[in-house]
Structures are given as structure tokens and as C-alpha cells.
Design brief:
The protein is mainly alpha-helical. Helix content is 69%, strand content 0%. α6 runs parallel beside α8. It starts with a helix and ends with a helix.
């Protein structure tokens, strides 16, 4: 089913826009800690993956705010256990400016570290400028 959605979204910009905003709305609801954590995580895995496949820069605020969503039972830290981080990495360099803001301003240290990891992973000229600006202050 997700392949069918992706194909439609790739050929119809309006369909893409509707899909992206529907996913954003649904993922916002799946961050409720009172909800079923297993179901929420599974939804995040699939939803974030679709957003990444769509290169949905519209979702970067949501993805970065939830960069630390993890499955909660795995002992390793990998992209498969961090769906928002994996999506950010797949979106690539368009995420760097927003990641820079997170590195500078987020009060949660591990979210800043995940943001720095994402910038380093997508290290290109824009990533280089991000760190140059950060170290110059």
C-alpha cells in the first residue's frame, strides 16, 4: 500500500501535499506517551519512512522535535530504532539549517547530540558552514 501511495504522490503534487500533511497530523498524535508505545513506535517507523521517501521537508519540524523517539526495548542505537532520525538522514542536507537551530537551542542534551550526528552524517558544504558558524560564536 505504501508503494501505491508513493507512486501517486510522485506524479500528483496535490496528492503528495495531502499525504504529507495527513502523515504529519497522524504522527503528532502518535507521540502521546499515554498511548500504546509499541503501536506508536511502529506507526512512527512507517510514517517517518514515507515522509523520508517523499523528501518531505514540510515535516522537518516534527521529525526534529521527535528525533529521540526510540523503540524502548533495544539495547542498540541504530537508525532502525530511531525512525525520526532515519527520516532526517534520508531527507539530507535540506534538514541542516533546522538541525543547526536544534544544536544551538534545544534544552535536551541528547536531542542536540542526535541533531549533531545528523549534520555530521550529511556533511557537505552546507554542513560545514553550520559547524563553522557554531564554533565561531
Amino acid at each position: 500500500m505504501s508503494e501505491s501511495l508513493l507512486i501517486k504522490a510522485q506524479v500528483a503534487p496535490r496528492c503528495r501535499t495531502q499525504l504529507v500533511f495527513a502523515l504529519i497530523k497522524a504522527l503528532e498524535q502518535a507521540t502521546d506517551p499515554a498511548g500504546n508505545q509499541y503501536r506508536n513506535f511502529a506507526f512512527w517507523q512507517h510514517g517517518a519512512s514515507l515522509l523520508a521517501d517523499l523528501k518531505a521537508t514540510e515535516a522537518l519540524d516534527l521529525l526534529i522535535a521527535n528525533i529521540d523517539i526510540i523503540d524502548g526495548w533495544s539495547a542498540s542505537v541504530s537508525q532502525s530504532n530511531l525512525p525520526a532520525l532515519a527520516a532526517i538522514l534520508k531527507i539530507g542536507t535540506p534538514a541542516i539549517p533546522k538541525l543547526q537551530i536544534t544544536i544551538s537551542n534545544d534544552p535536551v542534551p541528547h536531542r542536540r547530540r542526535f541533531a549533531a550526528l545528523a549534520v555530521a552524517y550529511n556533511w557537505r558544504s552546507s554542513g560545514e558552514k553550520c559547524f563553522e558558524n557554531r564554533t565561531a560564536t
